[in-house]
């Protein structure tokens, strides 16, 4: 897979000077450095050879696009090994330790530099007429700790909390069960109706295969013929998830999957590294993901949230109170988990027969910005018989 030419831009156009990893041994040597030394920096995106904060993705992007690599990254035993490597990087090596603090500074290339803060503020501010600085948006302390602003590690920074979420992200329609709110700060990718029990999700297109998305759960049949909504989280966004409805969590599980598998035909995109947006549909079937089922009052009824991690650490945390002892009551807008670093997307599944009137922002292509977490996403209703 290191000797084959990837079937995707830019490698299939100018591959000679793009191959940065010489082979397996070189790959392992790079991994051994990353897990004990490397914290994500903005500089990784420079030169077109990397995606901000995804060093493993940058190393593997070439083989991921080859025929042999496609088979390799789907293997269960390979992904078990990647899980050990990535968990070590997160928990013991760098991301959750003070080793990663050196990138959390106001210096050039630091995540608290002026350019980075501008990106975070642009994502988090909803109204240009009421602009909030990073320090007013998120829990931090630049006065007490002028170097790291109170962030103890990269992971601590990545899952940062709003300073006052009820003020900055109020819950839309909290007492109206027909209204579904946005479960995470994200940009819509796709709304798909009449999803199938099984479909060819690996082909070019926008096909969902419900049984495979939900790990062949007995509950999967409830969503056949229903509606899927998928959205993408940006690296600079808020990464905690909120319940889209009030009711009960009736089941939750982590589905271990792939970490670096991408759709085999992926030649229409120009970005050299990182999973392109339309690849998220494929990843919702194969990547590591958290699956949470909610039982809400009618007309929503049973619905499902799938939190998908698509690169590098791929940790989909489910809040402990909802991870066991079901059914467990949940309030609309209540925190239910978070993404711990890496590429992320989210999919909501609704039952057949549940009609949805989406807010304009939820329709892909209408806005080039995030839909705020806990804001109105759609109103559900049932067709008159």
From TrEMBL:
TM stretches of this protein: none
Keyword Endoplasmic reticulum among record annotations: no
Highest taxon of the lineage: Eukaryota
InterPro entries: PS_Dcarbxylase, PsiD-like
An annotated GO cellular component: mitochondrion
The entry's keywords: Decarboxylase, Lyase
MF terms in GO: phosphatidylserine decarboxylase activity
Any one GO biological process: phosphatidylethanolamine biosynthetic process
Any Pfam family matching the protein: PSDC
L-tryptophan decarboxylase PsiD-like domain mapped to chain residues: 1-118
Name listed for the protein in its UniProt record: Phosphatidylserine decarboxylase family protein
Organism: Metarhizium acridum (strain CQMa 102)
């Amino acid at each position: 897979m290191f000797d084959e030419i990837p079937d995707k831009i830019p490698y299939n156009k100018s591959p000679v000077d793009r191959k940065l990893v010489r082979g397996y041994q070189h790959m392992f040597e790079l991994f051994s450095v990353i897990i004990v030394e490397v914290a994500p920096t903005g500089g990784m995106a420079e030169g077109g050879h990397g995606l901000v904060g995804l060093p493993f993705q940058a190393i593997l992007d070439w083989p991921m696009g080859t025929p042999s690599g496609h088979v390799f990254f789907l293997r269960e035993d390979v992904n078990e090994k990647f899980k050990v490597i990535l968990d070590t990087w997160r928990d013991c090596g760098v991301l959750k330790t003070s080793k990663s603090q050196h990138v959390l500074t106001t210096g050039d290339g630091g995540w608290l530099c002026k350019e980075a803060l501008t990106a975070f503020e642009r994502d988090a501010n909803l109204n240009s007429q009421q602009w909030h600085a990073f320090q007013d948006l998120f829990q931090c302390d630049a006065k007490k700790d002028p170097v790291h602003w109170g962030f103890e590690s990269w992971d601590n920074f990545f899952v940062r909390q709003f300073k006052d979420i009820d003020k900055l992200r109020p819950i839309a329609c909290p007492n109206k069960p027909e209204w579904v709110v946005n479960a995470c700060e994200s940009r819509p990718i796709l709304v798909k109706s009449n999803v199938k029990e099984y479909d060819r999700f690996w082909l070019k297109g926008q096909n969902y295969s419900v049984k495979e998305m939900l790990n062949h759960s007995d509950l999967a049949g409830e969503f056949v013929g229903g509606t899927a909504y998928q959205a993408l989280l940006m690296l600079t966004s808020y990464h905690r998830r909120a319940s889209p409805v009030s009711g009960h969590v009736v089941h939750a599980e982590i589905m271990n999957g792939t970490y670096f598998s991408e759709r085999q035909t992926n030649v229409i995109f120009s970005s050299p590294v990182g999973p392109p947006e339309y690849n998220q549909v494929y990843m919702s079937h194969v990547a590591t993901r958290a699956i949470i089922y909610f039982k809400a009052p009618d007309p929503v009824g049973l619905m499902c949230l799938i939190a998908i991690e698509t690169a590098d650490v791929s940790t989909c945390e489910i809040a402990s109170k909802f991870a066991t002892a079901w059914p467990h009551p949940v309030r609309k807008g209540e925190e239910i988990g978070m993404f711990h670093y890496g590429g992320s997307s989210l999919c909501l599944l609704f039952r057949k027969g549940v009609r949805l009137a989406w807010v304009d922002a939820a329709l892909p292509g209408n806005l080039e910005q995030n839909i705020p977490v806990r804001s109105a996403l759609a109103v559900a209703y049932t067709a008159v018989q």
